[in-house]
Design goal:
- The chain is of the alpha/beta class.
- The protein folds into 2 domains: about 10-220, 2-enoyl-CoA Hydratase, Chain A, domain 1; about 225-270, Lyase 2-enoyl-coa Hydratase, Chain  A, domain 2 (Orthogonal Bundle), CATH 1.10.12.
- It is built from 11 helices and 10 strands.
- The strands form 2 sheets. Strands 1-2-3-5-7-10 form a 6-stranded mixed sheet, with helices on both faces. The chain has a 4-stranded mixed sheet with strand order 4-6-8-9.
- α4 (about 130-140) packs parallel to α5 (about 165-170).
- The longest helix has 20 residues, at about 95-115.
- The radius of gyration is 20 Å and the shape is globular.
- About 35% of the residues are buried.
Amino acid sequence: MDATGSTEKNNPANDDVQEAAVLIEQIGPTRRLIMNRPKSRNALSEEMMAALALELERANQDDVTRLIVIAANGPVFCAGHNLKELTAHRADKDGGKAYFAMIMETCSKLMQQIVNCPKLVIAEVQGTATAAGCQLVATCDLAITVNEANFCTPGVNIGLFCSTPMVALTRNVPRKQAMEMLVTGEEIDSHTAKAYGIVNRVVPKDYLRLVVDRYCEEIAKKSPAALKFGKEIFYQQVELPLSDAYDLAAKTMTENMMAADAEEGIEAFLEKRKPEWPCGS
C-alpha cells in the first residue's frame, strides 16, 4: 500500500509526523483513496479535501486506473466538515467569513470534481456518514454500505442548515424525504438510505470489500469509451427538459457509435466473442 505524501516510519526525525490524510491502494485497474483521519472521524478538513482533490486528479490522469473507490479507516466514514477547524477562525478579523467561504467553495469544487471525473467513483461506506460526509456518499456514482452505517444531515440541530449537502441529496433522494432529512437532522439507517437512493447496496461488514471489488471487476470489463460517454451525459441530461435530454442523448449516442470501442463491441457481439477494447482494458 502506497501512502502518497506519507513519512518514512523508520526515521526517528519523522516520528511525530502524521501519515498522509489519504492513503492510496492500487490493485489492477482499481485505485482506492482511503481517508485516514479516524481520530477526527475523517472530517472534510482543509487538509482532507486538498488530499482527496489531488488524488482524484492523479487517478484521473493515470492510464492504468479505470475505477476510483473512496473508502475510510476507522468506525466513521466521514463526519462532514471539521467544526473545530471552522470555529477557530471566528477569531479572524472578519469573524471567519472569508475562511468559511473558502471551505464551502473548496467542498463544492471537490463534489463537482467527482461528478466531472470521467472514471467511475464508488463510495465504500464502512461507517456513519453525516452532513458533508453524507453529501460525499450521495455525490459518488455508486455507493455500497454496511448494515451498521447511518446517514444524516444534522446541521439544523446546531443552527446550520445543510445547504451544500442538500445539493447532492436532492439529486438522489425524493423531495419530501430529502426535506425530512434536512429539517429534522435525524439519522436514517442503511436500509432506509438504500430505499431513498443514497446508496446502491447494503452488505454485511465482512463482505464490504469483496462486494466493492466485484463491482469494480465487472465494470472494468466494460468499454472505457462507453463509460466515459455514459457518465458525462448521465449528469448532463438529468437536469434537462425531456426534449433537450433526448436531443443531447441522440447526439452523444451518434458520437459513441463512431468510437472504435463501439465498432469493436458490436462486431464482437455479432461474432459471439469477447471484445478487445481499442481504447484500453
